[in-house]
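Two entries, shown back to back:
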Amino acid sequence: MWDDAVTGYDFGRDHPMDPVRLALTRSLVTALGLDRDVNVVAAKAAGESTLRLVHREDYIDAVRAASADPGSADQAYGLGTLDDPAFAGMHEVSALIAGQSVGAAEAVWRGDALHAVNFAGGLHHAMPGAASGFCVYNDAALAIARLLELGAERVAYIDVDVHHGDGVQAAFWDDPRVLTISLHEHPRTLFPQTGWPEETGASSAEGSAVNVALPAGTGDAGWLRAFHAVVPELIADFRPQVLVTQHGADTHFEDPLAHLAVSLDAQRAVQLACHDLAHEHADGRWVALGGGGYAVVEVVPRSWSHLVAVAAGRPVEPTTLVPDEWRRQVYARTRQPAPHRMTDGRWPVPWAAWDEGYDPADRLDQAILATRRAVFPLRGLLP
């Protein structure tokens, strides 16, 4: 899913959410030859009725007003803040990004495509009535809500951004048709200070929210161990009809806004795992989204190009050289040197499976066990 206009999602020069990350990803996808293996589609912007599947009418009106006159932004709605400065055209481009994710969900549900990717999406912090954390409209939640509207009875959402997927969790807190799973840095050390293991869903949907709060400093082996200790068993039990995943690249050790130490190679391993889970449990139906990621040259374009390649059925080998043509484009646009290979040199990434035993004194294993104890019994599973 791509429209050049999504690069207009621009909070300003000094904001970490630099839209160049989207443009560079798109050009790297082309440079790697992946355009030959995908259909590139531009969906229309999400309209009022679609936005209201998740967002309140008064909030949409506030976004429209701030979009027309940024100086009038109402901070009661999270607009005009340091995280979410208002800018001209904000409503239009935010609705366009949401439209790409909704269009991706529609295409997968209707069978027009087996997999769909919107790496401009994954804006998972936006709440029904407020902007938050660089996110104006919650395209991930809107895609899921549209799937439910189309008749889906079970949708699973996996979020591996370094920040808790709080907006998506909030949108479906009391809806047992949606299983939300978020792996993120512990709320003690990172925005939005939510995503504790004890957050498991409303009484009408107990066990539908799953949170793995990872200790700061968690690296590849721990991140993959946590993912595989929690996610596959829950997905197998839930049997989703569609899998929606969010792949924020800000877990990376070079990301400036967080404190995990994950490599590009581990991110690729999780992308492959999500692809396999979709085929094992959701008849292959997979909607993959981007998210955070603020190492906009070194990390984001490579991570999301890997995501596109995995979804296209043509994974890019980690040792692949980054095309010189793209490296020249990067320098021309940013005056920064571009990476030389599609790897951080850590492939294959080793990790230890949970069923091989756990260490009760290890902080990562404590985090995994806290999640399993909080959620698994609610779903009839052994912790």
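entry 2 starts here
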Amino acid sequence: MTTLDEYQRRCEQLFVAGGNAAVRRAAQAGLDELGPNPDLYCWLALGHAAEDDDEHDDYAEEAFRAGLALDADHLGLLAGYAELCLRADSFEYPGRAARAVTLSKHLKQLAPQSAEAEQLAAAERWARRGYWDDLRMRAAAAAVAGRDTEAQARALAVDLRHGAEAATRDMDAEDRDAVIRAATLKALSGPWNAPVRFLGRHRTTVWALSGILCVLTNTVLRQTGFVDSYSAWGFLWALPVFAVDRRFTAIRKQAQAQHIATLETALGTRN
């Protein structure tokens, strides 16, 4: 029989790895085996809420409410449910959005200095964000993705110099970075992928050059009377970089799914 602590460890590791569906499966397996438990309902709810989807939000709310029915003072359930309610659209889900105030107040009365209270305070600041904050967050996310692509391409160059066998011989299937490196090596080795590897390694410089070429091309087209205003023709310079970004991102996502599947199997075997 698997213990509650083992199920919680399994859920935590899968959640940190980004395996939301795997978290839900682990939490549901624990509920099926051990019966109703607020901690497992919390993990089940978080596994749904992390998807940021209307249908999953409904399932998350059901799980939060089921857990709080067992333990009305559970800090994790209160913080997670309040964060879900803060994220809700007040026009489509007025009841859910209104519950954020009650849940927040209850949590802060119970444990004002707790990690859950700090987490909720951060969520409240996020809920009060403005238009420019959204733009900055999107820009930051794009910058992180760009750095990931460059790091992935540079690691690929190192692995190719060392040889495919040397790069994958001691790979730990439970190490996310190692799985991504192996998947990138498999997908982008070979001379026909040399342009993709080059653009990936020098992504920042190539993006800057493509931006300059886009502006220059559009300027020349307008000055020669070929177009009256900025047109799509000038932005064709950016297409190769977009294609390279999508290629590296797709490899990361596929490798991430493989990593989570391996981790889920390994955790189930150990327990």
